[in-house]
Structures are given as C-alpha cells and as structure tokens.
Amino acid sequence: MTFKENFPLVVENLTKIINGQVIIDHLSFKLERGKVYGFLGPNGAGKTTTIRLIAGLIAPTKGDIYVEGHHVQKDKLKALSYLGAIVENPELYNYLTGRENLLHFARMSRAPVSINRIEELIKFVGLEDAIDQKVKTYSLGMKQRLGIAQSLLHKPSLLILDEPSNGLDPAGIRHLRDYLKEISTKENISILVSSHLLQEVELMCDKVIIIQKGKYVDEIDVKGSSDTRVHTKVRFTIKPDQMSEAIKVIERFGQAKTEGDKTIVASVQYEQIPDILTGLVNAGLTIYECAPMKTSLEDQFLSLTEQREGVL
C-alpha cells in the first residue's frame, strides 16, 4: 500500500489558472479516514473551484489529486468510484418520486447497487414516509437528504458537500449535521463540507481546513482539548494583585484589557505565555489565577485569515 492509499483524499500542489488569474495556488492537504472536515475560506478563496477539481468536473492547471490512491485525471473512473459529491444543489428529477430517483441513479452506478442498499439509505436519511412522493413536493431539507442518499448509493469512502446548509431552516441544519456525523461513523466515510456557517462547522466537524486566495492557510483540530497552537493567538485570563502593573507587562507581548475589578483578559501568541508569566513574577506581582479561554472557531478563523491577509 502506497502512502496515498492510506488516505481517502490527497491533494498535492494543486493549481488552477483561469483567464490568466491564479484561482488555486499550489494547494496541498489530505483527509483522514472517518473524519468530518470543514472547508473554510473568505469569499473568493477558491473553495468551490477546489471541490470541482476534486470531483473531476474541471481539470487542474498543475498538481495532483488522489482518491484512495487513484489519480483523478489519469484514472478518473476508478478514482470517482470512491467519491460521492453534491456540488451546490442535489441533481434530482422533480417529476419522479424519491424512490424512482434512487433507482435511476442506482442503475447508472458502475458498481451494483442492491434494493436492500436503497431501502437502507431511505431509512437512514429518514424519508420513509415521503419516498414515494414526487420530489417536486419535497422541502429543501428533504431534497438535501435524498441527495445525500443518492451520493451514498455506491458506498463511497469520500463524500464532498458544497454549502449543504444553504436555504435550510435551523431544524433542517441540525438534522443535516446529525446525518453527516452519523454517516462518518456508521459508513467510515471521510466528509469534506464547504460552508460559511462557522458555528455549524464547529459543531459538525472534527477538523477544519482553511484556505485563502487559493492557498493553504492552516488545519484546525476542532475537537482538540485546548488552543495549544504554536504561532496562533490565544486568550487567557489572569488575576494579579496589581492590575495596572500587570497590564503594562502583558502589553509588551500583546493585547490586554480588564474584565471586572480583578481579572485581565490577554490576547497573545501561545508561545509567549511562559515569558509573560516570568515577566509578571520578576515585576514582583502575585498571580492568583491564570487560565486559558477556549477560542471559538470563528475567532481562530478570523485571526488566521487576518494574519495571512497582512502577508499576502
């Protein structure tokens, strides 16, 4: 087994130039098996273009994409046999019933799809009561669930969804989140979800890949226990005996502000914390408490993209 076969998706030095403009710029990342990944970036970062490249809908200018070790350009049929994808909206036939849609796509599959598999997916996405109704009568959330069932017919090991929450109400978003988390566990599928809903991504995903201007920025372990990320800004609270003196010390390294009468909230680089504590002690201050503050995905995303914007 080669290195690339160990991962359901490997992207290496991917570049896409359109009309002389670099849309994707030497982008590289890989997905671990059975994990849900968020795919984030500011508007125009190249998320949808990357997804279209992975799905084989457009060809890269340079670089390589491997699905289960198979090159998407050189061995397209084999590579895409492991891939399920919904790019933008599910491609469904509104004049057919949900069941007829699934039967149609099952017949189109290169791998045999059993009736039992279809029934299993209908139950899994919770469409038993509506599966024999015309798709034109479905709500957007029901269409999303049917699209997910359709994309899972051939038992892919990689599922890619582009803005799957678009147009869904809060209940629909929650149901979608629950389905995706269950799919990754039950079917051992790696899922890549492009979304602009940062709070939802934080609840749904194990890890998040961030890109900006077509370039890789960082990968965040959303389920990590703490913000112990070198070269990343973190926030923590300090309770000293002399507030004004402590703020002077902290501001040599980063930002500090008071919160109440006895607490300081500091925003600094993670690796600076030992020097800050040493500086406080050397200044003769007594520290009664020092604790990290969990940083939201939104805070980390904005911090990383703002830092990146400053160097691009």
Q: What are the defining features of this structure?
A:
single chain, 312 residues, alpha/beta, Rossmann fold, Alpha-Beta Plaits, 2 domains, six-stranded mixed β-sheet, 10 helices, 14 strands, 28% strand
Radius of gyration: 23 Å
How much beta, percentage-wise?
25-35%
Unreliable stretches: 225-231
* CATH architecture classification name of the largest domain: 3-Layer(aba) Sandwich
Mean pLDDT: 87
Enter the CATH topology name of the largest domain: Rossmann fold
The CATH class designation of the largest domain is Alpha Beta
User: What is the fourth-level CATH superfamily of the largest domain?
Assistant: P-loop containing nucleotide triphosphate hydrolases
Strand and helix order: EEEHEEHEHHHEHEHEEEHEEHEH
The main pleated sheet reads as: 6 strands, mixed
> What strand order characterises the main sheet?
6-7-8-3-9-10
Count of discrete structural domains: 2
What is the overall number of helices?
A: 10
| Helix/strand class | alpha/beta
Number of strands: 14
User: What would you call the shape?
Assistant: elongated
- Which percent bin holds the helix content? 25-40%
Distance between the termini: 38 Å
